[in-house]
């Protein structure tokens, strides 16, 4: 069987900014029509965003929004979500893992489906720590999808579990609102997304939140039952892994892992004791700190080790089955 040949596309162009004739030829007619309908909204916002940056940018805000953008990345959720489970809140950890997984999945799907560009730079200044941002399409904003869906879910949990007069309830609501607002507005401030991108991400976030909240008891029953159907998530996620490897891998681990933990007495007792023994004092705080440091360190070690193993195992498999592959392939190609 002949090897697949990959044509290179100029990488000095941002994703979504090639000649419109290329998209008209490559996309289905109604998909091309939808892109042409949405493109003017993104284009006309570019000078507005450039004028806004010129008016309000300061060194402090630059650093603040660049760093808060990290609160919507894979690395942040890789650290944050396990901490929830380690300290006994497995239900909340699973729920937010599902929200972020499907937020990344569906926003990535829609980005590739719409092929809409980010705001043009120049005139907009892009402020980011990511070197490959220009290789991704813009609509909808993944950061907006994840931050808003997580914030809505945290607010719903606070309102459902805490009394109305509780200061903790108001603190949770204000914290979630601040988190979502700083991330979402930061994407506009940093020139990474248009208002249209953020609105699309917000709509998707609400749909994901509503689905997750409405089905939370069903998903909990799924992982706490004695049925082996939970392991079907592995082949299902493997069929979808081409759209987003990281979070499909998370879902493959969260559901079977939660089921196995629930059916293993030692693991279940460990989670229950973590939830019951949260207290304040010098020694408990030291134990909590060490638990976080050791746990996060193990996460990074595991991640690096798995990448090394995959680099050894996967290339021969791809070559054997003549699957598309190219070492260090540029995303926009």
Automatic annotation (TrEMBL):
It comes from the Eukaryota. Its main location: endoplasmic reticulum. Keywords: Endoplasmic reticulum, Hydrolase, Membrane, Oxidoreductase, Peroxidase, Transmembrane, Transmembrane helix. The chain crosses the membrane at residues 64-86, 92-110, 171-189, 195-215, 227-260, 280-302. Residues 92-213 form the Phosphatidic acid phosphatase type 2/haloperoxidase domain. It is found in: Endoplasmic reticulum membrane. It is a multi-pass membrane protein. GO terms for molecular function: peroxidase activity; sphingosine-1-phosphate phosphatase activity. GO terms for cellular component: endoplasmic reticulum membrane. PANTHER family: DIHYDROSPHINGOSINE 1-PHOSPHATE PHOSPHATASE LCB3-RELATED, SPHINGOSINE-1-PHOSPHATE PHOSPHOHYDROLASE. Belongs to the type 2 lipid phosphate phosphatase family. This is Phosphatidic acid phosphatase type 2/haloperoxidase. The lineage of its organism: Eukaryota, Fungi, Fungi incertae sedis, Mucoromycota, Mucoromycotina.
């Amino acid at each position: 069987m002949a090897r697949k040949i990959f044509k290179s596309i100029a990488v000095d162009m941002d994703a979504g900014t090639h000649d419109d004739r290329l998209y008209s030829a490559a996309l289905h007619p109604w998909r091309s029509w939808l892109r042409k309908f949405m493109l003017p909204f993104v284009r006309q916002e570019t000078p507005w965003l450039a004028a806004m940056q010129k008016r309000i940018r300061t060194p402090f805000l630059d650093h603040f929004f660049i760093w808060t953008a990290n609160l919507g990345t894979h690395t942040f959720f890789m650290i944050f979500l396990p901490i929830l489970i380690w300290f006994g809140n497995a239900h909340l950890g699973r729920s937010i893992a599902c929200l972020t997984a499907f937020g990344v999945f569906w926003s990535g799907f829609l980005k590739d489906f719409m092929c809409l560009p980010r705001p043009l730079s120049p005139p907009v200044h892009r402020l980011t720590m990511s070197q490959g941002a220009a290789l991704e399409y813009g609509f909808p904003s993944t950061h907006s999808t994840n931050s808003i869906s997580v914030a809505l879910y945290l607010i719903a949990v606070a309102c459902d579990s805490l009394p109305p007069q509780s200061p903790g309830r108001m603190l949770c609501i204000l914290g979630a609102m601040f988190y979502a607002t700083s991330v979402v507005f930061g994407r506009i401030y940093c020139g990474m997304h248009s208002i249209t991108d953020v609105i699309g991400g917000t709509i998707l976030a609400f749909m994901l939140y509503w689905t997750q909240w409405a089905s939370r008891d069903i998903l909990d029953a799924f992982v706490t039952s004695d049925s082996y159907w939970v392991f079907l998530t592995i082949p299902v996620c493997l069929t979808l892994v081409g759209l987003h490897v990281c979070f499909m891998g998370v879902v493959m681990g969260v559901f079977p892992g939660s089921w196995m933990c629930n059916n293993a007495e030692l693991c279940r007792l460990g989670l229950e004791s973590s939830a019951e023994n949260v207290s304040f004092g010098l020694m408990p705080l030291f134990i909590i700190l060490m638990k976080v440091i050791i746990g996060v360190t193990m996460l990074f070690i595991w991640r690096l080790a798995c990448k090394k193993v995959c680099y050894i195992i996967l290339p021969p498999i791809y070559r054997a089955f003549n699957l598309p592959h190219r070492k260090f392939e540029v995303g926009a190609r």
